[in-house]
């Protein structure tokens, strides 16, 4: 890259250079773990660069990716509406399928209404940044997803982060917030890096006490927790009619094998958001086949309750067995299972060796997590058999012993 006289530009160029060198070095050593290309996908059985593997890094928690009813709904929508829309939803891009999808989401989440946005990322940052402004306060769990963080920054509200799931810290933050202005508390329902669950009963109690609005991101709880897979309220036995969560956000790209995000809640609030979320107003919508696929996926969750049951059994077995073999899986209670390695080089090597043995996992490295919690993140789905889970655990154990992550 050309040399520059400007120190700021030099720093920028050095950053670009350093990252490129890191990537090249990792690729040379066969340790680059990202963006590996799947040639074929059949449930948890994938072919990556021609090699058959068991997928343990999937967000398709209920194994709905490729479900025949969902595929058929997408194909029918292509025949009816084509592959895109006549532009943004707000102007000419709303089809019947979008409206039906939003009705289905509202029914599933037991809210008055819902709005669907083209990505979960846009749903989060668009909602937070349009809901609050410079005279308000947003209070966010320290390990909330990046799309929440970006929304908080963009909103220009006072941005307070509390220690992860620490209810005393949340109470302090609420108590210290200025009396005037809106207070918004935001948290993931299931935390995407740690797999643990927000303390919803306490968060809702505090929000009521301090008259704060509450927004919960259900990206990793929809289809995953609650007996019927309806998410965080069902998990805690809270009646949605109580309306304790003002803004229920979720994605259509994980359990729901499509693309998009939604915001569900009371009609007046959602109507306000429908007219103010910038990624909704100024960006193209979910394509009709994807909207139809998403709606069909909600129906499949209701029609095939065995999937949620099997996911719960698999997650429980996976966690219990890993812990019994000595792995540190933090406080995970769900299908997202962190396996703490605490060392970047070993996490990369474990990923490489596991993939060589046909188990596809991903490493989570700093700055995404604290260096001492550098980890492998493994996810289990309703599509895994117990034998497949055992195979993964045995592989992890063998590799961890060879790398001195576990004692032999
Ligand atoms: C907790 C959480 N929220 C929001 C998102 C964004 O969702 P999407 O990928 O649908 O844009 C993600 C995606 O990884 C997530 O994990």
Structure keywords:
14 strands, binds pyridoxal-5'-phosphate, 408 residues, alpha/beta
Description:
- There is one protein chain.
- The protein is α/β, with parallel strands linked by helices and 408 residues long.
- The protein contains 15 helices and 14 strands.
- The strands form 3 sheets. Strands 4-10-9-8-7-5-6 form a 7-stranded mixed beta sheet, with helices on both faces.
- α2 (68-81) runs antiparallel to α12 and α13 runs parallel beside α15 (386-402).
Count of helical stretches: 15
Q: Catalogue the unreliable spans.
A: none
Shape assignment: globular
- The average pLDDT value, as a whole number, equals 96
Question: What is the compact description of this entry?
Answer:
This protein is of the alpha/beta class. Helices cover 44% and strands 16% of the residues.
Give the arrangement of secondary structure elements:
Blueprint: H1 7-28, E1 38-42, E2 45-48, E3 51-55, H2 68-81, H3 89-93, H4 96-109, E4 113-117, H5 120-131, E5 137-141, H6 146-155, E6 158-162, H7 167-176, E7 183-188, H8 200-209, E8 213-217, H9 232-236, E9 247-251, E10 261-265, H10 267-274, H11 278-281, H12 288-303, H13 306-324, E11 336-340, H14 344-356, E12 359-360, E13 362-364, E14 375-379, H15 386-402
Parallel strand pairs: 3-12, 5-6, 5-7, 7-8, 8-9
Antiparallel strand pairs: 1-2, 2-3, 4-10, 9-10, 11-14, 13-14
Helix pairs in contact: 2-12, 4-12, 5-6, 7-8, 13-15
Residues 119-121, 124, 145, 147, 188, 192, 217, 219-220, 251, 253, 261 line the site of pyridoxal-5'-phosphate.
């Amino acid at each position: 890259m050309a040399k520059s006289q400007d120190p700021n530009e030099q720093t920028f160029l050095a950053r670009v250079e350093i990252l490129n060198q890191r990537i090249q070095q990792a690729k040379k050593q066969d340790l680059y773990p990202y963006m590996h290309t799947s040639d074929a996908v059949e449930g948890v059985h994938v072919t990556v660069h021609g090699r058959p593997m068991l997928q343990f890094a999937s967000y398709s928690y209920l194994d709905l990716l490729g479900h025949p009813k969902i595929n058929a709904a997408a194909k029918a929508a292509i025949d009816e509406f084509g592959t895109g829309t006549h532009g943004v939803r707000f102007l000419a891009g709303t089809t019947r399928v979008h409206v039906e999808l939003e009705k289905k989401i509202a029914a599933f989440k037991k809210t008055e209404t819902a709005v669907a946005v083209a990505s979960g990322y846009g749903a989060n940052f668009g909602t937070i940044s349009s809901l609050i402004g410079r005279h308000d306060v947003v209070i966010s769990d320290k390990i909330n997803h990046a799309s929440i963080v970006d929304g908080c920054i963009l909103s220009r509200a006072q941005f307070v982060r509390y220690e992860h799931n620490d209810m005393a810290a949340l109470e302090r933050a609420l108590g210290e917030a200025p009396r005037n202005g809106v207070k918004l508390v935001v948290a993931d329902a299931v935390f995407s890096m740690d797999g643990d669950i927000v303390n919803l009963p306490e968060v809702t109690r505090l929000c009521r006490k301090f008259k704060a609005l509450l927004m919960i991101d259900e990206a990793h709880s929809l289809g995953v927790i609650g007996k019927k897979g309806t998410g965080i309220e069902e998990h805690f036995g809270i009646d949605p009619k109580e309306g304790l969560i003002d803004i229920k956000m979720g994605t259509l790209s994980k359990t729901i094998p499509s693309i998009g995000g939604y915001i569900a809640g009371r009609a007046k609030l959602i109507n306000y958001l429908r007219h103010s979320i910038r990624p909704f107003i100024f960006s193209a919508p979910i394509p009709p086949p994807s909207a139809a696929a998403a709606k069909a996926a909600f129906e499949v969750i209701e029609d095939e309750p065995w999937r949620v049951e099997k996911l719960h059994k698999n997650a429980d077995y996976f966690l219990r067995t890993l812990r019994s073999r000595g792995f540190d899986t933090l406080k995970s209670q769900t299908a997202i299972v962190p396996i703490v390695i605490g060392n970047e080089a070993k996490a990369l090597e474990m990923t490489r060796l596991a993939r060589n043995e046909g188990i596809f996992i991903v490493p989570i490295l700093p700055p995404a997590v604290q260096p001492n919690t550098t980890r492998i993140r493994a996810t289990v789905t309703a599509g895994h058999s117990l034998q497949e889970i055992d195979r993964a655990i045995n592989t992890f154990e063998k590799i961890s012993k060879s790398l001195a992550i576990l004692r032999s």
